[in-house]
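QA checklist item 7 of 12: single-chain prediction sanity check.
[x] sequence parsed
[x] length recorded as 271
[x] structure emitted
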Amino acid sequence: MRKPDRPGLYTPDDMLWRVNRELVLLLSGTRALLLEIAHPLVAAGVAEHSDFKRRPLKRLFRTVNMMQRMSFGEDAIMRGAARGVNRCHRPVNGVLAEPVGHYEAGTAYDADDPALRLWVWATLVDSCIVFYDALVHPMSPADREAYYRDSVKMGRMFGVTPDLLPPDYPAFDAYMQETIYGGTLAVGETARAIWRAIVRYPVFGQMVRLASFVSIGLMPDHLREAFDLPWGPARERRLQWFLRTAPRVRRFLPTPIAVHPQAWLRERSYV
């Protein structure tokens, strides 16, 4: 493989590239966003330091765009994306206006808190793995480990301190399970309001709602219920049909349709 004149953080040989190049993984951003704002301190930061009521899709689109630039961009583009995210986070701090779960009113939050940055980064990593497993092909333990180790590079660039980063994929998975089921998350009215603003946004909100069907279906049950996301036997049957069908269809799709265009164009520079 020829090295391009302007390489990035990853190459087409890296597991992260091979996974994130799948265009269907763009849908995973909605699941990641729901998991993010299920943390009351993250939800408060979004609600108090963004114009989500007027531009509710901004964070979702920004997250998806950031992942694309980090995964496939040249070094300058990738570092610019990291600087942009870090710059946006600097002024985000405050206190909870009302109690949520075990978090009391007045609990301080700060987007520069490495533990919160760890959670936001982890939702992206976990959601990409979940979607690739479900819609493309199940990942082997070795593939999961390789994907996680590639993702750690991105985590460090976004301010997650080395002492907080799980050392391997099993430790990362244990962290996710503990955070999701151990009481750290609590969906309050603020998080639900953010989600309602997204799905009620004219035109694009409806598109996001339709595109989010799989994301909602792949959410942990108790969080889906806490967000008041509609689900039931009929939706579950449609989801299972889609999960059976998508990997079969993927095998027959040509690269220009199935692969993210930015990845496809960058791959040509490696030939």
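[x] summary fact logged: The chain has a mean pLDDT of 86.
[ ] second reviewer sign-off
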